[in-house]
Each structure stands twice: as structure tokens, then as C-alpha cells.
Amino acid sequence: MPSRKFADGEVVMGRWPGSVLYYEVQVTSYDDVAHLYTVKYKDGTELALKESDIRSQSSFKHRKSQSSSSSPSRRSSSRSRSRSRSPGRPAKGRRRSASQSREHKDDKKKIIQETSLALAVLVLFKPSENNTKRYNGEPESTEKNDTSCIILEPKLKPDLEIKRVLEQYSLRSRKDDKKTEEIFSEKKTFVAVKPIEKVPSKTKELEFGGRIGTFMLIFLLPVTVFYLLLMCKQDDPSLLNFPPLPALESLWEWRVFGVFLLWFFLQAVFSLLPIGKVVEGLPLSNGRKLQYRINGFYAFILTAAAIGVLLYFQFELHYLYDHFMQFAVSAAAFSLALSIYLYVRSLKAPEEELAPGGNSGYFIYDFFTGHELNPRIGSFDLKYFCELRPGLIGWVVINLAMLLAEMKIHNLSMPSLSMILVNSFQLLYVVDALWYEEAILTTMDITHDGFGFMLAFGDLVWVPFVYSLQAFYLVGHPTTITWPVAAAITVLNCIGYYIFRSANSQKNNFRRNPADPKLANLKFIPTATGKGLLVTGWWGFVRHPNYLGDIIMALAWSLPCGFNHILPYFYVIYFICLLVHREARDEHHCKQKYGLAWERYCQRVPYRIFPYIY
To answer: Does residue 221 contact residue 457 with C-beta atoms inside 8 Å?
Structure first.
């Protein structure tokens, strides 16, 4: 175990997070596990810093003494001139030393005044930015609800920003610029080191069981999908009643694959239409922001119109039900081919474009989790497109096909109440996701995970063919429920949706504009990253209230299928496991990102998803 370099109580110079400036701090403690020093600034701010971000005061004093001396060239030139003077004549430099000293001090005062002016101009004339770039510091008080005191986050290169403003609002003549630069080099109190370039490092902490786990998941996920679909076709879909394996030739049909490709590229065309607003995503590691066109809801409307035209011309939409397994195989084959293409192209991607969680250097792991963060063909973002369009909208189309298949197979004039509830609940969920499409830009899938087999298979196969399992089950296993039961299930779904939507809206509004007067009643814990951690409202109830609402809705989707078999409840069981695992991933990343602020937040909000349980 490496020994610590600085002792408790020692006064050192600590780098302020996100900047190149060092301030005087006092070491208060040291974490032997995380190898982080807890330091306290003069204003009471406490932060956790790495040893590389801390320097001794002696090194700064040494630099300051060097900078205050004349430059080597000036020293050498003065020596060369002094040899030509007579011994009795005093040196020119000594005769003018007093006047030069006064001028030097006046120049220093002028520079300090201009620096103050520059900082004031920065505050007054800097346009407001996205809330993800705001800086709140991390004071001793753990909660704040006065959003008017939020100041802008320091830039990575503040000296350049100050220099730009000084040139624009200068109080001195241009001939003094050279002298000013010399004074700045002498007057620097906070020493700037080399700018830090954020280049994604190798992924050290492997998730999903590492190389062995991801290798097994590549086979386990498709097997699970096919097993569930085969079970739904059984008259008795019990877990112990294993379905017979179909003939391999019956699982593939080129016509079905052609229909899937037509669907995929039709959604791609809809996403490229110049309708909807264009927004910027979160900053990448190199500071660049990608642009995204928000038109998912318009694509859904166009898709609904196209389906309506097909039904008007008496197209048999239950064709999806008759070839459901073949469609699943086609989607799986396409997602595998897409994953191979994504990995091959990621090998030529620049280092700063690689995913933080998929840059391990192991082929299987990077292939599964995704090696490149935002693979694009021109302006067409492959990951962002697949997240919401073909799979999510396809889920609604599949549900509609199951509804029509139920009516045809059972000779019904209208669909069953159970089928209506399942279609309605899940339609609301999809429409909500498309209406609030912009919110996905801050999720872990977009900001952290690369685009590999995990997301490609999940978006194109798992979502449309597993999430529609309840509707597929009801076609072969009709379930009758009474109106009071249907009303109770509807109330349960509405409660889940209310928690889900209000929690997400509260979070998104706070991220977008924490100074909004409507959010003045919300308390939050400021962090060194500029983001606040809400400790009131839904986010003061549990750490992930949106997950709680998601799980309640998932239960409401399964209840219309009755209690004869556990198969339709696979979704809610899987979803609980998924969200618990995702919560653990969030917990790990937030602890690394927010440090002490996250620990205080966990003390303030102890329950993760289920209040008083977990």
C-alpha cells in the first residue's frame, strides 16, 4: 500500500476541481482505500483531492522567488553594458531604480484593478449556460435552497478567459502589454500547471462479470428471448413444461428479414426529416457537444399514419403474430451484424471518442459493452437512433398486432379488457418516452455506455419482443377480469406513472434551470461538479423515485394476465433485477463523481428505491 505524502493538519496548496489554480488548504483526513485526501479551504469548503492535485507550499514559494527576478536575457545584457562604463560612473540601472520601482508598483496596482474589472465583466456579460455547467462549490452547509447565489463554473483555462476580457476592456495603452505580461509573471499567486486534457483511460473495473460474464451474456440473452416466445406458444406455459425446439429452417424467412429491414430504414428516414428542434448533448471528454434532432414524437405520428393506411387497405397486421419468432430471429441477426460493424469501426476511432466503460482492451468485453461512445455516420447517431425509434415504436406496433390477432383467433368483435389495459398502459409509456425524448441525453446509456452488442440487442430485440410479452401471452391464454379489478389495476398504473413522471420532471427542470423561481422550495446539496443533489421532493424520499414508479407500472402491466402462470410476470421480475443492478452502477459512478457530497446525500436519503425496505 503506498504511503501518504501529506499529514493531517498540514497546510498545502490544493488544485480547485475543474481548473488549473491552486489554493491554500489544510489536510483534514486521508482515505486509505480510495487514496484521497480530504482538504479544507479557507472559506470552509471541504473536498476530496488526489495526491497529484496537492503540492507543498515550498514549491510555490520557490517559483515565486524565481519569477520576481529579471529574465536571463536582461541580466546578461546589463552585465555586457556595465563593462563599457567608467568605474566612477554609477550604473544607469541603479540611478533609476527608485523611479522604476514606483512605476513597477503603479503598474501592479493597475493590473490588479484590471483583473478585478475582468472578473466583474465576466459575471455581468457572460450569457447564462446550461445548468450542467453551473458551479455551486461545496460549502460546509449541506443543504441550500437559495438558487440566486449560484455562480458560474470556473473554466478549465481561466487565464485565457481573463486575458480575452482584459484585451477587450483594457485601461492601459497597447505599448504597455509587454510590461504587463512581465508583471503578471511576477505577481502570480496561484501557479498554473499544464492544462489537463481529459483522455479516456483504460477501463479497469469490469462490469457484468468481466470477460467471462459478457461472453456468456452474448449467448444467454438470445436464448432467453427465444425461450420466452416458445413458452408463450405452449398451451401450458409452466416453467417445468419445456417447449419443443422448432426446426432450424422454420426460424428464418428472407421475406420477414426484408420487412424488418424496411421497418428499420423507414424509422431512420423519419429521424432524418428536418422537423423538430435540434439540441446539444452533454459535453464530451474533449469539451465538444454533439447535436441531436428531437423528432421522435413526430416519427411516432408518421408511423401511426402509415399503419392506419395499411389497415385501411386491409393489410393483415396479424402477420406479425404468425411470424413472430422469425421476426425475433431476424432482429437478432441484424443486431449481431450491427454489433460487428460497430466494433470494427471503433478500432479506428480517436481515443477521445471511446466509451469510458468499454475501453478495457479485451475484445469480448468491449464488443459487448460497446467500444465507441457515439458512433455516427455523418450526423446520423446510431446509438441515439436505436435507443428510441425502431425498438420502442416497434413495441407499440407489435402490441397492436397482438390485439388484432386476439380478435381474429377468438372471433371477438372487440378486444378483451385485459388486452385493452396492456395496450393502453404500454402505449402511454412509449408516448411519454418520445414526448420527453430530450431527457434521454443525460442517461447513462448515452453519456457512459458505448454502443455495442448490449445496447444493440437490447434496443432492437429485447425491448420489442420481451416487453410485448404480456400482449403475446394474452393471445394464446385469454384472461377475463372484472371492471372493478380493471379499475384497481388502472389506479395502480396511474400511481406508478405519476411517481415516474413527476420525479423525472422535477429532476429535468432542476437540471435545466436550478434558478427557476418555481423550484425555490427545493433544497439541494451543492457539489464540486456544479450539479446539485436534490434532497426534497421525490428525490428526498428515495434516491431513485423514477425507478420506483417504473416498477409499479411494470406490475400493473402484468396483473391483467391473471395468476395462472408466472410467465407474464417475467417482465416485472426482470425489471426489478435490472433497476437494482443499474442503481448499483449509478451508486458507484456518483460516489466517484461527487465524493463527499454524495456521502452526505446518502445520509440524508438512506433508501435507494423502495422506501423503508431498500
So the answer is: yes
H/E element, 280: strand 277-280
C-alpha cell at 266: 423507414
The dihedrals phi and psi of 15, each to the nearest 5 degrees, come to -75, 135
- For the stretch 153-191, pLDDT in tens is 333 344 444 444 444 444 444 444 444 444 434 333 333
**CA–CA distance, 506 with 502 (Å, rounded to integer):** 6
* Sequence-ordered list of residues with C-beta below 8 angstroms from that of 352, at least 6 positions apart, any chain: 198, 199, 200, 284, 285, 286
Contact 386, 460 (CB under 8 A): yes
Determine the average pLDDT of the residues in 214-229.
94
Cell 427542470 -> residue: 509
- What 3-state class would DSSP assign to 28? strand
**What is the 3-class SS of 518-552, one letter each residue?**
HHCCCCEEECCCCCEEECCHHHHCCCCHHHHHHHH
Write out the H or E segment, with its range, that includes residue 152.
Answer: strand 151-152
Q: Are 47 and 17 in contact (CB under 8 A)?
A: yes
* CA atoms of 478 and 169, how far apart (whole Å): 76
Other CB atoms within a 10 A radius of the CB of residue 418 amount to: 25
Across-strand partners of 278? 293
Q: What is d(CA 398, CA 259) in angstroms, rounded to the nearest whole number?
A: 13
Grid coordinates of 310: 395499411
Region for residue 562 given its phi and psi (left: phi exceeds 0; alpha: psi -120 to 50; beta: otherwise): left
Q: Is 191 strand, coil or helix?
A: coil
Residue type, position 319, single letter: Y
433-469 residue pLDDT tens: 999 998 888 888 888 889 999 999 999 999 999 999 9
DSSP for 227-246, please give it.
HHHHHHHSSS--TTSPPPPP
Cβ atoms within 10 Å of 297's Cβ, excluding its own: 16
In whole angstroms, give the CA distance from residue 506 to residue 542: 14
Neighbouring-strand partners of residue 340: none
What domains appear along the chain, each with residue ranges and CATH number?
Answer: 10-57 (2.30.30.140), 204-480 (no CATH), 481-613 (no CATH)
Q: What is the grid cell recorded at 175?
A: 505599448
Residue type for 261, please?
Answer: L
Identify residue 464 by its one-letter amino acid code.
Answer: P
CB atoms within 10 A of CB 219: 9
Integer Cα distance of 590 and 510 in angstroms:
18
Q: Residue 113: is it exposed, middle or buried by C-beta count within 10 angstroms (0-12/13-18/19+)?
A: exposed
Check: pTM over 0.90? Answer yes or no.
no
